[in-house]
Design a protein that fits this description.
Strand content of chain A: 5-15%
Number of helices of chain A: 12
Radius of gyration of chain A: 19 Å
Helix content of chain A: 40-55%
Order of helices and strands of chain B: HHH
Number of strands of chain B: 0
Order of helices and strands of chain A: HEHEHEHEHEHEHHEHHHEH
Oligomer: heterodimer
Helix content of chain B: 25-40%
Distance between the termini of chain B: 9 Å
Distance between the termini of chain A: 32 Å
Structural class of chain B: mainly alpha
Shape of chain B: globular
Number of helices of chain B: 3
Strand order of the largest sheet of chain A: 1-2-3-4-5-6-7-8
Strand content of chain B: under 5%
Largest interface: A-B, 39 and 36 residues
Largest sheet of chain B: none
Amino acid sequence: MSLREKIASGEFVVCAELGPPQSCDDAVIRKKAGCFKGVVDAVNITDNQTAIVRLSSIAAGRILLEEGVEPIVQMTCRDRNRIAIQSDLLGAAAMGIENILCLTGDHQRFGDHPEARGVFDLDSIQLIAAVRQMSEGSLLSGQPLKKAPNFLIGAAANPCAEPLEMRLIRLEKKVRSGAAFIQTQPVFDLDQFSRWLEMARRRGLHEKSALLAGVLPVRSAKALEYMAREVPGMRIHPRYLERMRAAAEPQEEGVAIAVEMIGALRQMEGVAGIHLMPVMWESITPRIIQEAGLMPAHAPRPACPPCSGGENEAKF
Amino acid sequence: MNLVTKEKKAFSRPMRLLSALMLLGEDLIKVPLFRCQRCGECILSHTGFVCSQRCPKRLRNGPCGGTGEDGHCEVYPERMCIWYMIYRRASFFGRLKMLYRVEKIHNWNLEKTSAWLNVFAKRIEPPKWRVPKEEVKP
């Protein structure tokens, strides 16, 4: 079942995330894809996240399709103007990519090329509207397309940043512009998330768009502390920091927290699914999905070799 | 649906002269008052009279996901997020409904031109002073 059908059916959606390598090694992507096949509904492919140069998200999306995993290609406004965005979208559609996640993009100052010129010709809301217009059959210029793409549009939301009302205004604009699903930042503060969800429900946004709550399994207390300190717009309840610090086996504790979080999020009204972000820890996905009781019944046993070492693996 | 501020025919020579003069006057007022970034497509009336173009990403439609809990910018943590200030100012003036508008995609040819003359020449939409009673639709 494709992501579009799954969202329409109202079943609990499970997305995951994959970061392409900082090289042209497609074997890395194929190996990571093995962790996701038959386990999750679709996989996000990040577009040069944190402004660090990586293999193109559209190319990685094509590789995932070849591996039998449905990709959600992230498209940011940082690196492309409206000409490049539309051209890349047409290219992506021609290669069979159907899901686009529209983001503004991290500022280039955080990346490996802080001197770069940021483009930001569009912002994420305008990008959503542009993708919708293309799906409806015309370019931003108004020129009709002989063959229009058929994209399922996604967007991101941050339930933790203040003021919450401004967040909801922005979310409403995204939904109204055509976002069919919304992925949130990782949730590490359930009270804050339920406050945000309550406000979204009051606006009826959960009926117009599938809200997918972000879950991030952490490997060590250090990784969580790093996120609390360095990642902008993240709110982490001190309870989780304490639990990770006190844990004898931090990896086990990280899995336990993620499974617990999924359980709690599933109970909430208006959460249509989860978005699992095993940053540089893709191999843990099948286990978490299994323990959370979300493994599809007919799923083949994932042939996932234990990913160890490897590029950037130690970071988180 | 029209998402983009379309490019119009170039100004004639006298209009260009007028534009330069108007820009001078506009800068004298808007730069000290609003720290105007001279985008030429003024949306001050939609954003609680705080210039949204001071955002490092020049976002016209709302804050990015990186605003800290206390409202600081992710790119320059010593500054406040401009959209945090817009939110506060807009709620102070009772203009929060204006933030629901989806702003058009910027025409970069209007950079460093007079927004007042652009309104007059029908290149951009006029400012919206009155807050609509019902919900704003794009």
